[in-house]
Amino acid sequence: MSISFTLNGTPVSVDVDPEMPLLWVVRETQGLTGTKFGCGIAACGACTMHVDGQATRTCVLPVDAIEGADVRTIEDIGPETPSAVQAAWLSHQVPQCGYCQSGMIMAVEALLDEIPDPSDADIDAAITNICRCGTYDRIRAAVHTAARLRREA
Amino acid sequence: MSDTPEPRSKVRTWTRRSFLATAGVVGGGLALGLTLSPNRLKMSDDSVATGDEILLNTWVKVTPDNRITVFFPHSEMGQGAGTGLAQMLAEEMEADWGAVSIEQAPATDAYINSDLGRGYILGQGANIPAFMYPMIDFAFLQIANGLVGQLTGGSTAIRLTGQHGMRRAGAAAREMLLQAAAAEWDVPVTSLAARDSVVTHAASGRTATFGALAARAATFSPNLKPALKDSAEYRIVGTSKPRLDLPEKVNGAAQFGIDVVVPGMVYAAVALAPVRDAQVASVEDAAALGRSGVRQVINLRDAVAVIADSYWTASRALEEVGIDWSGGQTDLSSAAIRAQHMSDLDTGDMEEMDQAGDVSAALASGTALNAEYEVPYLAHATMEPMNCTVSLRGDGADIWVGHQNQLHARNAIAETLRMTPEQVTMHPVYLGGGFGRRGDMDFVTLAARIAQAADAPVKMIWSRETDMANDTYRPAIISRMQGAVENGRITAFASRYIDARSGMPDSERPFAFQYEVPNRDVARVICPSPVPVGTWRAVDFTQMGFFHESFVDELAEAAGADPLRFRMDHATPRRRAVLERLRRESGWDRDLPPGQAIGVAMVDSFETIVAQAVHVTVSEDRAVKVNRVTSVVDCGRVINPSAAEAQVTGSVIFGLTSALYGEITLEGGGVQQQNFPEYDMLRLSNAPEQAVHFIASDHAPGGLGEPAVPPVTPALCNAIYRATGTRIRSLPVAKSGFWAA
Ligand code: FES
Ligand code: FES
Fold first, then answer.
1. Which residues fall within 8 angstroms of residue B241, CB to CB, at 6 or more apart?
2. By C-alpha distance, which of B389, B430, B425, B402 is closest to B15?
3. Is pLDDT above 60 for B608?
4. What atom in ligand 1 is closest to the CA of residue A45?
5. Cα–Cα nearest to B259, from B383, B388, B382
6. β pairing state of B294-299 and B351-356
7. What CATH number is attached to the domain comprising B701?
8. Which of B39, B27, B53 is nearest to B109 (CA)?
9. Which is higher by pLDDT, B5 or B540?
10. Which among B250, B461, B652 has CB closest to A86?
11. Over pLDDT 90: what percentage of chain B?
12. In A1, A45, A126, B6, which residue has its Cα 20 to 30 A from B181's Cα atom?
């Protein structure tokens, strides 16, 4: 069965098991490996993509549930010039191993789309991803910087 | 895109040929390698070069376009080692930092990291970082035959490779470039100066770039002992240069092991024994093989693998395989292991580790205390689950794996595949966390065995559940301590503890009490863990730090003393300075409202002293909120303050996570925790505010990947005690009815 959706602005059609989670469809059939696998049960956020603008954990999202949807991955952030979030991530030197950061950045991009100037409480509520390297303090600072950069842009 | 800048950090495929091609003059430039076999040994310090050893392991390349590439022999797992090492080299070379890039060195014997072994054997104060313990052949005499190195412990890179290799490589390259300019212009070397990758002759105003001089520089011999800069002149070391690997870690481009794509590749999902050491009795695979995309079901006796055209398909099919397991240690449980530890402490063979004075007399004369402390098994839970990709070809194998010890992994795979090490090519990738777990061989040899049974290149990925239930854990152990205080002084310290054999060498002395006490009696019972254990970020210092630093607080209370000043009264001057700074920075002497308190602890490990103050609020219903953690660190010279701070703040989260949540338990021979809800992690919402202060120091750099982990747990528990009066002697804090808010 063929399932169609838009991936980073390009229409794609995949012929896979409809139950296959979007994460694996994107990583393995579309060759975009920036989005990561961390837990497979929606507990860590490493697999976060935007589905119709919503930050979504895609390791448990069957691909047939997103027929016709607009899917955006880390590869579409920037990519020519860093987004405000990416620029803030670099100026605060956020990543350590970097493995969780695609998911973090996608979650933060969606947060700022919804709440342009989030409070610490907004950040706590929205960004529940795990970073095993413990980069949380820099993430918080970088989210505030990114919000400012977006306003100034 | 032609105007896209080249990434300044690379992990890329090396073949034997490309490696050899870099040795010498390349493309009209200078390639300076410091790893030379002894008969061609040019660069090693003769005080450490003996016999057949291969010493330094640093390469630098200068190309005619005036770009400098630094090759570093460590894996990048988040610590930013490549950038720090390049800073050390560029500083001595007088390079233009903006034109420096880094590349991970190939895994070949020429990069053997044997400085590490040397420091250990000679006891030169170069303590060996924890991650490498299991990687050393402890038959020391064999080290000369080739300590199989290229290993990455968070604490080795700067201390050893950087301090011994990178600085000297940079200085030697600078001297060669100056010699080239002197010859070119027929002026004395002493009339020349190098700065920002340009050599200048002040008298004539002539200048030349390093790139322009590189080919000629390559005709000079590297100086054995180049002059190193005075640290007062440093311009690059000690500054927070942005990490060169980060641009590709914010756009999804960084390639981790799990991201590797090999043409024709298939995927493997694996089931490992649910009971330790159980074997496969039978496999019912018809249903799995019927699933579209499934190619093979492989019975490996100790594991079953499903091969499919997608990982998800393989893992779904694996659930449909009926596996009968038989045998194994079905009676293994956390309770049984604990009971064994207790009886060993009662009646086992004691081995004396540290003894001085007369403990019995001191106990009899002072105020004596007894306490029993214990800690559970802990998982590493790296964010990237274990994975390894193996491609077999007629004459060898290609391996892609995020590993902390590439050469050792290569050899383990070669042995599994019955090949020579030279037939196995390792391809560096980024590591999605290591923490000691990625120094083990179990997952790489398993991947090799699966590849042998498959008919295509295979990427094996462990599910989070497989990863968590098949870790090499931080051991659960127990310590019984006794102490005495008299007139405000600790007069005795004694402990009896279980050594579960994590692999840490005794020379690190994690068991040693870190305060001045005249009467000591520390002994262990060796009780190897029946569950695989390994190095877990800071290793045995994590358990001993909790035991000793909690007990010191108990002793301080018995002495009626302030816990921080009590520590200072018993500390060496360097440690005392760290504690005094912590007192000032943490607001230690402030009055706090009820329910709030600050706890303190200090642990000196891997040549770095870390003291931490943890400020908590504990509610009526025992919810613990960690408000703020202040760390004061004396790690000697700081190479990159921003990267150093990140290691400390990350370690604090790592340690707090274990104290608040961490526990792996066994029942019926299997691990009970499967995934993150049962083995939970701190998140943004409950991560504390942090402050990190470094003591300005000219000491040689200490380790930094691990030393900030051990003190945070006892500091937390000491804070909880001061807030509530409940002393936590068993972790995690949930055992005492507390929970993380
Ligand atoms: S991999 Fe999807 S939330 Fe963890
Ligand atoms: S940076 Fe390593 S898990 Fe977040």
1. B83, B87, B97, B640
2. B425
3. yes
4. 3
5. B388
6. unpaired
7. 3.30.365.10
8. B53
9. B540
10. B250
11. 71
12. B6
Domain of B33?
A: 16-170
The percent of residues in chain B predicted with pLDDT above 70, rounded, is 84
Query: pLDDT per residue over B191-246, tens digit each?
Result: 999 999 999 999 999 999 999 998 888 788 777 678 899 999 999 999 999 999 99
Say what the pTM is.
0.91
Find the distance separating the first CA and the last CA of chain A, reported in whole Å. Answer: 44
At the topology level, CATH places domain A84-152 in DNA polymerase; domain 1 (1.10.150)
Q: Give residue-wise pLDDT tens across range B410-436.
A: 889 999 999 998 899 888 899 999 999
pLDDT of residue B695: 97
Residues whose CB is less than 8 angstroms from the CB of residue B4 and which lie 6 or more positions away in sequence, other chains included: none
Q: Return the structure tokens found at B253.
A: 């481009």
Query: Are B454 and B404 contained in the same domain?
Result: yes
CA B305 and chain centroid, separation? 30
Q: How far is the CA of B461 from the centre of ligand 1 (A)?
A: 15
pLDDT digit string (tens) for A45-90? 999 999 999 999 999 999 999 999 999 999 999 999 999 999 999 9
- As for ligand 1, residues whose beta carbon falls within 6 Å of it are A 37-40, 42-47, 57, 59
Given B170, B203, B224, the domain boundary residue is B170
The ranges assigned to domains in chain A are: 2-76, 84-152
- Token pair, residue A123, equals 């950040």
Q: Is residue B217 a part of any domain in this protein?
A: no
Distance CA A66, CA A46 (A): 19
Q: Is any Cβ of chain B less than 8 angstroms from the Cβ of A43?
A: yes
Antiparallel, parallel or unpaired: β A54-57 and A48-51: antiparallel
Whether the predicted pLDDT of B505 surpasses 80: no
pLDDT in tens, B237-293: 999 999 999 999 999 999 999 999 999 999 999 999 999 999 999 999 999 999 999
At CA B197, angle to CA B192 and CA B199, rounded to 5? 20
Whether the link from the prior residue into B5 is cis, omega within 30° of 0, is: no
Task: Please check whether residues B435 and B308 belong to one and the same domain.
Answer: yes
d(CA B131, CA B233): 33
For B383, the closest of A21, A38, A125 (CB atoms) is A38
- What is the model's pLDDT at position B21? 25
Residue A35, chain B, CB below 8 Å: the answer is yes
pLDDT for residue B57 is more than 50: no
Task: Say how far apart CA B164 and CA B578 lie, in whole Å.
Answer: 27
> B82: which chain A residues are within 8 Å (Cβ-Cβ)?
none
Q: Of B139, B170, B201, which residue sits at a domain end?
A: B170
| B576 lies in the same domain as B441 | no
Rounded to an integer, the average pLDDT of B43-63 is 43
Q: How far is the CA of A103 from the centre of ligand 1 (A)?
A: 9
Contacts of B58 (CB under 8 A, 6+ apart): B33, B34, B35, B70, B71, B72, B73, B89, B161, B165, B166, B168, B169
Distance between CA atoms of residues A31 and B402, nearest Å: 20
Say which ligand is closest to the CA of A135: 2
Residue ranges of A 72-131 with Cβ closer than 8 A to chain B: 73-75, 77-79, 82, 86, 89-90, 93-102, 105, 123-125, 127-131
Tell me if B681 and A24 make a contact (CB, 8 A cut-off).
no
- Is it true that domain A2-76 has CATH number 3.10.20.30? yes
pLDDT average, residue stretch B295-307: 98
Residues B704, B357: Cα–Cα separation, whole Å: 34
Residues B410 and B547 in one domain: no
B433, amino acid identity:
G
Per the listing, tokens 């020429």 go with: B110
Q: Please give the mean pLDDT across all residues of chain B.
A: 86
Element containing residue B566 per DSSP (H, E): helix B563-569
Would the pLDDT of B151 be above 50? Answer: no
Question: Which pLDDT does position B79 carry in this prediction?
Answer: 82
